[in-house]
Design a protein that fits this description.
Largest interface: A-B, 29 and 30 residues
Low-confidence stretches of chain B: none
Distance between the termini of chain B: 29 Å
Radius of gyration of chain B: 18 Å
CATH topology of the largest domain in chain B: Rossmann fold
Structural class of chain A: mainly alpha
Strand order of the largest sheet of chain B: 6-7-8-3-9-10
Shape of chain A: elongated
Mean pLDDT of chain A: 87
Order of helices and strands of chain A: HHEHEHEHEHHHHHHHHHH
Low-confidence stretches of chain A: none
Strand content of chain B: 25-35%
Structural class of chain B: alpha/beta
CATH class of the largest domain in chain B: Alpha Beta
Largest sheet of chain A: 4 strands, mixed
Number of helices of chain A: 15
Helix content of chain A: 55-70%
Order of helices and strands of chain B: EEEHEEHEHHHEHEHEEHH
Number of helices of chain B: 9
Strand content of chain A: under 5%
Largest sheet of chain B: 6 strands, mixed
CATH architecture of the largest domain in chain B: 3-Layer(aba) Sandwich
Radius of gyration of chain A: 30 Å
CATH superfamily of the largest domain in chain B: P-loop containing nucleotide triphosphate hydrolases
Number of domains of chain A: 2
Number of strands of chain B: 10
Oligomer: heterodimer
Chain lengths: 391, 244
């Protein structure tokens, strides 16, 4: 039997008996992403839906000075609340989202045909009240335009006179692309799963073995170090692929739980999507396994390896952050860069676009090439004399 | 048969081994005796090819370790200083893992394993997972997995370290049995009583050098001391680091 396979089989068998590896690799790692995702999205969606459908409840000061205005707002879903004594303090203390204030001279100005003023107290730095304020502004705007038009008509003029330019918006987004913008964080969860799925194994199989003093006896067997390394990398890859499969399956299930259609969005989370994600991720699985083993080989202890690999986990965040802060057009070369290629590829799939065979090939070839280099470096470090010495 | 010729090994400034030569013959027990930090473990690590000597050469059954280290490792059974087991595997599974890595055919491996389990009196714990093994149980398992491929040459780094009196006695008898089977047994120790009892040949190492390479009898005569302990102290120049 091939000695790499002997090592592989033993590592898989031993780690299947290790509760910590199992829980981290096959449970927490792959499921935490989908879980957080569903929770965040559900909260976001239900809040948006609630805010859009529920009546807008805000305190009004001086409602009696403009009964017609209040009645018109009420028709649009505005529910006037009793006034507050100090509107500035009420907004600052976050007691209310905004306060509408109608001055005493509103009626007089209205009757004379002067611009009649109303005031909205709000805090633009509070994101949670943005929607309430803009709804109120829209209502007031519509009321103002309607009455302006009526006044023109009463004077025998066409309301079109004061609207020389009319904007007609033609939004080219599709239900899927709107969803994609919202779900751009999703690729990161897949990458994170690969990092988490194999991490405990990577630490355990090198730094852990050395700390438990079993690496030196292992290396005394008549097996070349690189063969031992291959067996260990194989075991790490198997666990992270398993982790990835669980994660993909969880996302496909999650896709059905998220009421995206209520937002006029559509997610392309199906078995085909899962399969394509898996293919895109394969080079990354090998690359990460080699990288994590390399780091573990350099670490002096289990804890040290854990610390370094924790920091290493921040690396995959970079493309996610970069792409969300500076949404650049996806360029062909991006498929040649590991991590970035997964990010743009999965995003593209989510948006309902398709990744061409050439792009798949580029992602796989370049990804595996970088992984092979990483593997060679790791094998070199694995061959070093110091690696086995525990004390 | 193990021949060691003029080994040198430095770690940065520290010269751990500075000129060690000896040979260990088949059917004999050769003891490496020396105080802590004398270079015994480093010498052994070069013997089992974990480390490459800066200069000098190691021949195992005539094969140069630096030329064909895999062939050398096939001929060696080693109990290194580090004797960690896989705690999620049973003692038998630990042994089987090494049998497969050594390329021992499955049926032969099973026969050898059961023979070792019997000789080393491992029956009571052989099917238990290694987590929570006593020091003695760990050493026995480590020895069994080291000898699963029936090696002609056996290297043991302080094999009685951490064992209680009864286990130590059994370990010594086991080493005599290995000699009786015609193997070349090399072991390191800092316990002179043990070395005196067991060895056909004593190699005294101190400060990274061999300062004596004799039979126990010749050692006594050379120093003019009838007591071996006094003889050692005389050779090494101080009693430091030696345990009775």
């Amino acid at each position: 039997m091939n000695s790499s396979f002997v090592v592989f089989r033993k590592e898989v068998r031993e780690n299947l008996r290790d509760k910590r590896t199992l829980i981290n690799g096959l449970f927490t790692g792959p499921l935490i992403g989908p879980l957080i995702f569903v929770m965040i999205i559900n909260v976001m969606i239900s809040r948006q839906l609630n805010q859009a459908e529920s009546p807008l409840e805000l305190p009004v000061i001086g409602a009696r000075y403009a009964p017609n205005l209040i009645e018109a707002l009420h028709q649009e879903g505005f529910d006037p609340r009793p006034p507050v004594a100090d509107p500035i303090a009420a907004v600052r203390d976050r007691d209310v989202a905004a306060v509408l204030s109608i001055p005493a001279n509103f009626g007089k100005a209205w009757d004379k045909g002067d611009p009649a003023q109303v005031e909205i107290y709000y805090d633009s730095s509070r994101r949670d009240t943005e929607q309430a304020v803009s709804r109120l502004k829209d209502m007031l705007d519509r009321y103002s335009r309607l009455n302006g038009a009526l006044r023109l008509v009463a004077r025998g003029l066409s309301p079109a006179l004061i609207r020389p330019v009319v904007v007609d918006e033609r939004d080219q987004s599709t239900p899927q692309s709107r969803a994609g913008a919202l779900f751009s964080i999703l690729p990161y969860f897949f990458v994170l799963t690969v990092f988490m799925g194999g991490m405990y194994l990577a630490i355990d199989l090198t730094a852990g073995e050395r700390e438990r003093q079993s690496l030196e006896p292992l290396f005394i067997n008549p097996v070349a170090r690189w063969r031992i390394l291959l067996g260990k990398i194989g075991a790490i890859c198997l666990f992270s692929v398993a982790s990835l499969l669980i994660c993909a399956a969880a996302f496909i299930v999650a896709g059905h739980l998220i009421p995206t259609e209520k937002l006029g969005m559509e997610l392309g989370l199906g078995p085909v999507f899962g399969l394509e994600v898996l293919v895109l991720m394969l080079p990354l699985v090998l690359l990460v396994a080699a990288l994590q083993t390399l780091v573990a080989a350099f670490s002096k202890s289990y804890r040290e390896a854990q610390t370094y690999l924790g920091i290493l986990m921040l690396i995959p965040v970079l493309p996610s952050i970069l792409l969300s802060v500076m949404p650049v057009k996806t360029a062909g070369w991006m498929y040649a860069v590991p991590l970035l290629s997964q990010q743009v590829g999965i995003t593209e799939l989510l948006l309902g676009g398709s990744v061409t065979a050439a792009q798949f090939a580029m992602c796989l070839v370049c990804g595996f090439a970088v992984a092979a280099i990483m593997l060679a470096v790791t094998a070199r470090v694995y061959g070093s004399e110091r690696l086995a010495i525990s004390a | 048969m193990i021949q060691v010729e003029n080994l040198h090994k430095s770690f940065g400034e520290i010269r751990a081994v500075a000129g060690v030569s000896f040979s260990a013959r088949d059917g004999e027990i050769t003891g490496l005796l020396g105080p802590n930090g004398a270079g015994k473990t480093t010498t052994l690590r070069m013997l089992y090819t974990l480390m490459r000597p800066d200069t000098g050469r190691v021949l195992v059954d005539g094969i140069d370790a630096s030329v064909d280290s895999l062939a050398v490792r096939k001929r060696l059974g080693v109990l290194p200083d580090a004797r960690g087991l896989y705690k999620h595997l049973t003692a038998r599974e630990n042994i089987d893992y090494f049998a497969r890595l050594q390329g021992v055919p499955a049926d032969e491996a099973e026969r050898r394993r059961e023979a070792l389990v019997r000789v080393l009196e491992m029956g009571a714990f052989a099917n238990r997972r290694a987590e929570g093994f006593s020091q003695g149980q760990r050493v026995k398992t480590a020895i069994a997995r080291a000898l699963i491929h029936d090696p002609k040459n056996v290297l043991l780094d302080e094999p009685t370290n951490g064992l209680d009196v009864m286990a130590t006695r059994r370990m010594r008898q086991f080493m005599r049995d290995l000699r009786g089977e015609g193997r070349c047994v090399v072991f390191s120790s800092h316990i002179m009583q043990e070395v005196a009892q067991l060895c056909d040949r004593i190699v005294v190492i101190a400060g990274g050098r061999v300062i004596a390479d004799e039979s126990p009898e010749a050692l006594r005569q050379q120093t003019g001391e009838s007591n071996l302990e006094e003889a050692f102290v005389k050779i090494i120049g101080s009693g430091e680091g030696l345990a009775a």
